[in-house]
Amino acid sequence: MNDRTTPPCLAVHGLGGGPYELQPLVDALRAAGRDVEAVTLPGHDVPGPTMPASTWPEWVATVGARLDALAVGRDRPPVLIGFSTGATVALYLASRRPVDRLVLIAPFLAIRGAGRLPFRAATVVKALARVAPNVPRRRPAVRDRDARRRLAALDRFRTFNLSAAASALDLIELVRPGLPNVTAPTLVLQGRLDTVVDPSRAAWLLERLGSKRKRLVVLPGSDHLAAHDRDLLVAEVVGFLDDPQR
User: Fold this and answer.
1) How far apart are the C-alpha atoms of 85 and 23, rounded to whole Å?
2) CB neighbours (10 Å) of residue 235?
3) b vs e for 63-95, b when ≥16 Cβ sit within 10 Å of the residue's Cβ?
4) Which of 57, 165, 178, 234 is the least buried, fewest Cβ under 10 Å from its Cβ?
């Protein structure tokens, strides 16, 4: 679908990852005839194995520039698809500029378990980043074993940069007050078994969005990398984008 009236899609990956995190969804949307571009965030376009520092203003600038480029010659603005920190970036942009629709997968709004701590997660992450900026990378957070092995081979970084993580937490603080300004039709997809972000924040987010058309889909068998778990995600997103009433 490359006509003027069908909006293209821009997919934004998560912190420390890459476009491969959304590849099954990107492939499905392309197979359905949609134009899809998967952007690579600054700080994620190097070979590794050490993940470099990068900041949210860099991520937002890169995604915003691609949105502008994709909008050229179209009657409608692009669809914005964000995963994890990519969803936080998407929310920041959608609160400040038009997007046709918004798809948020495992949006990063709080670290899993951080609510039980007696201190703010950002304070701890920033303190650790000053003394140990790079920590070992955890294995891919996906339930499907074959997908876990495949994704581990695709991960170019063997470390995780805490300065970049601290910047992602700063972005959350900036995004929260602007949520009522997000008015595009929005689909939120959250794995019930997510071990990275707090799953309960998906419902919290839905309540605060200014969108008149918004929906939360809880994926019962999915961890964080939900696009790679054999669950409902791909069908839900394709249906959301194809159905004019959603």
Assistant:
1) 16
2) 11
3) beebbeebbeebeebbbbbbbbbbbbbbbbbbb
4) 57
DSSP for 73-116? T-SSPPEEEEETHHHHHHHHHHTTS--S-EEEES--SSBTTGGG
For the whole prediction, is pTM greater than 0.90?
yes
52-97 tens-digit pLDDT: 999 999 999 999 999 999 999 998 999 999 999 999 999 999 999 9
Q: Which residues contact 172 (CB under 8 A, 6 or more apart)?
A: 88, 108, 109, 110
Could you give the angle at which helices 85-94 and 56-71 cross, rounded to 10 degrees?
Answer: 60
Euclidean distance between CA atoms 173 and 29, whole angstroms: 32
State how beta strands 159-161 and 134-136 pair: antiparallel
Chain segment 142-196, per-residue pLDDT in tens: 998 999 999 999 999 999 999 999 999 999 999 999 999 999 999 999 999 999 9
Alpha-carbon distance of 246 to 244, in angstroms, equals 6
Task: Give Dmax (Cα) for the chain.
Answer: 53
Burial of 136-172, coded b for 16+ CB within 10 Å and e otherwise, reads ebeebbbbbeebbeebeeebbbebbbbbbbbbbbbbb
